[in-house]
Design a protein that fits this description.
Elements lengths: L2 E4 L13 E4 L3 E4 L16 H18 L7 E8 L4 H12 L10 E6 L10 E9 L1
Parallel strand pairs: 4-5
Antiparallel strand pairs: 1-2, 3-6, 4-6
Helix pairs in contact: 1-2
């Protein structure tokens, strides 16, 4: 299976993601929004701690599905903030993590008003494609 990542001429440069991702896959994997809860249901009090937990949770979920970060074809990152510096900090933490390759594909980063769990500051939506 080949995942094709492209930035068509005429579209703005990106900070690492691609505007278009295409794949012919035998199986698609859709992860539920990955929340920053640890196995005991605890949540870190800070944004980057929560981001690290999301990385760990997403890697576990991908592994369970037989996928890796290289198989990811779409991500949507939700950050409960209107501060661009906080959104950028999450992006930098994610792209520099063991999950980083997943963000070279079609990706969206959104600032939102709130997320589902009390104190939750970040969530990650992931789609992967497998041969």
């Amino acid at each position: 299976m080949t995942i094709e990542r492209r930035n068509p001429p005429g579209l703005h440069p990106t900070p690492g993601y691609h505007h278009v991702t295409s794949v012919e896959a035998a199986r698609l994997v859709f992860l539920a929004g990955q929340c920053p809860l640890d196995a005991d249901g605890r949540i870190a009090p800070d944004l980057l701690g929560q981001t690290d937990q999301i990385v760990a949770n997403t890697l576990l979920a991908l592994e369970d599905a037989g996928a890796t970060p290289e198989d990811v074809v779409r991500t949507v990152i939700y950050v409960a903030s209107s501060e661009r510096a906080e959104l950028s900090a999450v992006w930098d933490r994610l792209t520099g993590s063991a999950l980083g390759r997943a963000f070279s594909t079609a990706s969206t980063l959104l600032g939102v008003t709130c997320l589902g769990f009390p104190g939750q500051l970040v969530e990650l939506d992931v789609t992967a494609a497998l041969a």
